[in-house]
Amino acid sequence: MSVAFRISCCLCRKNIPLAGDVIALDAEWQRRYPDMRGTLACERCVIDYGWNCCTTTQGAFVDGHIAAPEDQVDVDSWSHHLERGTHRALVQCHPRSGLLQGAEAYLRSIADRKGIDPGHAAMLRTAIQEWDEQHSSTATLAVTS
Ligand SMILES: [Zn+2]
Ligand SMILES: [Zn+2]
Q: How would residue 71 be classed by pLDDT, with cut points 50, 70 and 90?
């Protein structure tokens, strides 16, 4: 049995269509769009928010540019996609974003599942533990202030 979930896109905040892929974006996207909530985006936003060129007319990278992953030729916003895939695969590869963007219950169920790869389970549990700690400290702050 698996837990159903929806991911809200990090850019438009709408639920990413279940029929479509999810795209994980890198640090350069986060630099350009500091309001991004998580790093998982819908297909529409990677087109609408994408950019054509990472360099100035003189050919140098724009100020503050964060290099694309090493295996990518760094030219435009498409160079800054980390990964593309199904909802389930991407929230498991990027659990911090998954937790933030709506897959919390699903990720908890996966981390507790029997037969799951121990290394993968440990990675998920670490992310979930951090998430819980952040939430309990926010709750404490809210009470004391
Ligand atoms: Zn979107
Ligand atoms: Zn670039």
A: confident
